[in-house]
């Protein structure tokens, strides 16, 4: 009997204008969203290649260990084509520093060159599915009961020995039979576009997750069909049922998610970024003061002169052509300074972690509040499946910070900041005294620094003092004389990629369960409403 | 005659379920937005003050080092949160919110917002109007003709000596009036709540802005209602016209506004930032090679060392070369943004967004004005510095935009340093920005209504 009703419902729907228009809507919107997603993904891959090449070049072209800092460029998530989540708003790389733990990624977001374009919004496959599937579900179910009542056919059916539960279930199955082809069509179309795009290599993980997304979409669809049937069973005329359903749709799909984020931002405020900047600046200032104080205790060198020197941020330094005692001075200094810097990073982390936590709390609150609406649940689960939600970013940052510790242990294992290689490739055997440097530079004219200084003090023209030091050549005085550093044993960063199901642990699983529970609850509600429904 | 019809239609609308539901949802969302507004505005203001305090502190510290340091250091000018952001936030959260400048140059813009939340629309009047007003306007009109035909009242009405123009016009006017009334009631409730919670004060400016905003919403309602009538006369049954109306709404309120990024990228592409950087690097390289030897030598604190002049010349040339390239790139970005807007203005909802932004004097238009103004200020600041430097006998007057070595090393009292004050957009500025979009929407409403009327004259009412 149930199948009978379902088949009749299915045939009825199949011939209707809404089926045709629904199909056409999907036929237009789904390729539109997937193609935009693919375009964005390709841009991001292009950006990734550019940034990765630049990072490799930067990391390769160093001559001292103090300049060696891994730059981690993250490849874009392929499933971002379907659900971009927050991937369009965060940068794509992290430079591992000793003086600072990474808080948020740097670099371009979504390969965007024009920062003004960040104010343009965009929709992806998941958004379109959330909008269109719910609309179609409501359009097919809003008059499931009220229309038949108006036509008088409901009364005739009920005159037969037909339980109301069977009728309701039959209608549900019938509507789902109509909508299922549309849903499958949407996912097939999306999948086919990806398949025929050539350069997109989806692995089993991506296909598996896409299939899971399809299953979640089905639950979402069922939920909206049930909402429609419930409304239908509670209203007398199909017109009011329609109006109610449309308002419910716009409220649940468009208003609630924005409202949730708005409320989260208003009532779960993030910690002040300016405040954090102020605290970090003060701590960095404190570090510099401590470093200066520590430097005072070091034995002075015979000549504080760098023939060639390059300083970078985060303690990067390369020096050439210093006197042996100045090299020694720098070595002793780095051995004190670098641990202080790493220690300072650990101390700064407390404030940074609190800031990052407050951002995470806010994002979590927005997601949780949006769960009032099935669309909120659907988007949250989809974001987790596509690996583009905030939780995925937080996990990645945790990994990056762990990698930073590994990198520091690697450096510490070599005890490298107590060695000359930290800031110069000059071997200790080639380090000479200040007097010897003067003799070489002046081509033998001055034998000691004292005689040179005595002469230089008498010269009015500053330039000529230096010109005389360009007569001879100092061996090891320029970077070009040394090869690049070889650090083949440096631990690499391995991007942890989860399998098909791992991200469903925790929050996402709860949300899926919620979706199922809501379905059951709504079916019960619709059933109760229909039992009390006046079919006349 | 059309007045009788309009009056009847308005009454009909007034008692209908859709009117009640629209009113409830509009007032509900507006109230929710207004109640949170005070809190978030306070947070935004405190953030702004902190940023401003940091900037002022930096300036004061530099003034105590020396005037040249004050001139060469890069500073951020943060845009103050707008008091009328409850009407329209104009997506300012996602736009750059600071301009970077020194006395020698305006370098660019910076975005300083960290968030882990998915992009979303704030619960402002503009969001409610773009989403709900457009939707409700369609909902009030989609069955105006096809629905009456189904219930056979249309043939009855036309049996009387009533012009078709009067029927359609009456329905049109009543729908627009009903939707505008909903928005106006919502706006009044929202204003009352905002005043009651102390989020805003009572002022004439807000009243004028609010009135202009409701006017803009009425324009949106007029366009969408015209589309609704068109959907209605295109179909024989109200079911089909509903589907058509929903498709129109999805296209205008969802698809087109959300494809701006795609349009910008594909229709108006710009050069990659990396390519621009390469050109800058090349210009630097060329200048370095062409510079006289000794230009980079800086081994002395003696301001009159001749090498300082060479280096100052080189740094000025480098800055000018970089500025030419980067300003060009900024112009390309502005162009890309503006053209994309012009193209997406084909959607009334998007057009309304740009119109609302002009009404409240915020968003991109405001940023653009601040950008132009800060260029003027930068010119004044550099003139001020040059005048001060000219008075210092201990300065060689070799202007170097990156170092404080060869210009005045005197300290300066922070009080006499010219400060930049943002000039809010005047009524004239706003009207100028609003006019194209308002005109476009008015023309669109006329054309679509004309189309609906033409179709209606040939509509089989039986």
Task: List its salient traits.
heterodimer, A: 536 residues, mainly alpha, two-stranded antiparallel ribbon, 16 helices, elongated, B: 462 residues, three-stranded antiparallel sheet, 15 helices, 3 strands
How does the SSE layout of this entry go?
The complex is a heterodimer of chains A (536) and B (462).
Chain A: H1 2-14, H2 17-60, E1 71-73, E2 93-95, H3 125-141, H4 146-151, H5 153-158, H6 164-195, H7 204-234, H8 238-267, H9 273-296, E3 308-311, E4 317-320, H10 324-369, H11 374-386, H12 390-413, H13 434-441, H14 449-457, H15 462-467, H16 507-531
Antiparallel strand pairs in A: 1-2, 3-4
Chain B: H1 2-15, H2 17-65, H3 67-72, E1 75-78, E2 98-101, E3 106-110, H4 125-141, H5 146-150, H6 153-159, H7 164-196, H8 204-234, H9 238-258, H10 260-267, H11 273-290, H12 306-344, H13 348-360, H14 363-390, H15 427-457
Helix pairs in contact in B: 1-7, 2-4, 2-7, 4-7, 4-8, 4-9, 4-13, 7-8, 8-9, 8-13, 8-15, 10-12, 11-12, 13-15
Structure description:
The complex is a heterodimer of chains A (536) and B (462). With 536 residues, chain A is mostly helical. Helices cover 62% and strands 3% of the residues of chain A. Chain A has 2 domains: 2-272 and 355-409 and 491-531, no CATH class; 273-354 and 410-481, no CATH class. In chain A, strands 1-2 form a two-stranded antiparallel sheet. A two-stranded antiparallel sheet of chain A has the order 3-4. In chain A, strand 3 (308-311) and strand 4 form a beta hairpin. The longest helix of chain A has 46 residues, at 324-369. The mean pLDDT of chain A is 88. Chain B is mainly alpha-helical and 462 residues long. Chain B has a domain at 1-258 and 442-462. Chain B is built from 15 helices and 3 strands. In chain B, strand 2 (98-101) and strand 3 (106-110) form a beta hairpin. Chain B is elongated. The mean pLDDT of chain B is 90. At the A-B interface, helix 2, helix 3, helix 8, helix 9 and helix 10 of A face helix 2, helix 4, helix 9, helix 10 and helix 12 of B.
